[in-house]
UniProtKB/TrEMBL annotation:
Keyword flag Magnesium: yes
One MF annotation (Gene Ontology) recorded for this entry: metal ion binding
Superkingdom of origin organism: Archaea
Name of this protein: Dipeptide epimerase
Keyword match Glycoprotein: no
UniProt domain Mandelate racemase/muconate lactonizing enzyme C-terminal: residue ranges: 140-233
Cofactor (UniProt): Mg(2+)
GO BP terms in the entry: amino acid catabolic process
SUPFAM superfamilies: Enolase C-terminal domain-like, Enolase N-terminal domain-like
Family the entry assigns: Belongs to the mandelate racemase/muconate lactonizing enzyme family.
Keywords: Isomerase, Magnesium, Metal-binding
Length: 346
């Protein structure tokens, strides 16, 4: 068998500037990989690099030729385990770059078999969770308005970015306009351990599901300190990159938040799910600001999850790709009428 590969960078403006404690983003730079077999069937995957993990569109483009050379050398897209192992041996870091290749291969393989990815995995498309929609940091009044807009668009689950000097004011304003919505918050490592415990005690008044990454990932004992004292469940995001991190975080949090762009492949994402379950953790899948070239694939993990935060494409002003429909955050795998991940150019 022979495979042809190509990639291109796409720059996508966001609908609104997106701010977390580490900074503001107005565009998403993704790199799209295409792998075509000799019958002309093509798989598509996306890399959404995060500078927090040392990747940019430029680093993705720099390593893709070596990664795609592995794919062409193996030649058989169904050899997913072998290809992914060789991708890791070729480029140890750069998980977003490796993930774009993994997604494109999974899309190709399942298109060749003419089944949606969830069906290839044997998952139940009726068992999906609802994705949250993220409210980035802004002035409090603007965050309240964004919440109202999200409610008008039918979202029933919201994630709110915190880590400001007015975190309680923000949650009070949001609860004021959204008293019944399912709500969780993400501090993106902003608090010290002691600060986290007292903030979480105050936040617990507002009926939150959990608090994501209260303290720095570089402070695992701080995360344990918070977990043992916190008034709300704790999710680990920056502290949970690959399946190898799961034993470490197992006694420091309640929820493992995996992301394709941190773990580097769809097979590794499933290993994280299973490792987390084995350690008694709940599982969430989050995302970067990503097009449906990668979000569509993440949607197929939904039947394995307790929480999904897969709004990456929804935060874009205009996504050049369609994927799995997500009206009001409801991941509609059952309604997907295309094989593969469901990705198509919009
Ligand atoms: Mg997070």
């Amino acid at each position: 068998m022979s495979l042809e590969t190509e990639f291109e960078q796409v720059t996508m403006p966001l609908e609104f500037p997106f701010t977390i404690t580490r900074g503001t983003q107005t565009t998403a730079e993704n790199v799209i990989v295409r792998i075509e077999d000799e019958d002309g069937t093509a798989g598509i995957g996306g890399a959404a690099p995060s500078s927090h993990y040392g990747e940019t569109a430029a680093t993705v483009e720099a390593v893709l030729p070596d990664l795609l050379a592995v794919v062409e050398d193996v030649g058989d897209p169904h050899q997913l385990e072998r290809i992914e192992r060789r991708l890791r041996e070729t480029i140890e870091r750069n998980p977003a770059a490796r993930c774009a290749v993994s997604i494109a291969l999974h899309d190709l393989v399942t298109k060749r078999l003419d089944v949606p990815l969830y069906r290839y995995w044997g998952l139940d498309p009726t068992e999906t969770v609802e994705s949250s929609y993220t409210i980035g940091i802004d002035d409090t009044e603007r965050m309240r308005e964004k919440t109202e807009t999200a409610l008008e668009r039918g979202f029933g689950t919201l994630k709110v970015k915190l880590g400001t000097d007015r975190d309680l004011e923000i949650i009070e304003a949001i609860r004021d306009v959204a008293p019944d919505v399912r709500l969780y918050v993400d501090a993106n490592e902003a608090w010290t351990p002691r600060e986290a415990v007292s903030r979480i005690e105050a936040l617990a008044e507002y009926d939150l599901e959990f608090v994501e990454q209260p303290v720095a990932a570089t402070n695992p004992e701080g995360l344990r300190y918070v977990y043992e004292r916190a008034a709300l469940p704790i999710a680990a995001d920056e502290s949970c990159l690959t399946a190898a991190d799961v034993p470490q975080i197992a006694e420091r949090c309640d929820v493992a938040n995996l992301k394709l762009m941190k773990c580097g492949s769809l097979r590794e994402a499933r290993r994280i799910v299973h490792a987390a379950r084995a350690h008694g953790l709940q599982v969430m899948c989050g995302c970067m600001t990503e097009s449906n070239a990668s979000i569509a694939a993440a949607c197929h993990l939904a039947p394995l999850l307790d929480y999904a935060d897969l709004d990456g494409s929804l935060l874009l002003a205009d996504d050049p790709y369609d994927g799995v429909s997500m009206p009001g955050g409801r991941i509609n795998l059952e309604g997907l009428e295309r094989p593969g991940t469901g990705v198509v150019r919009s």
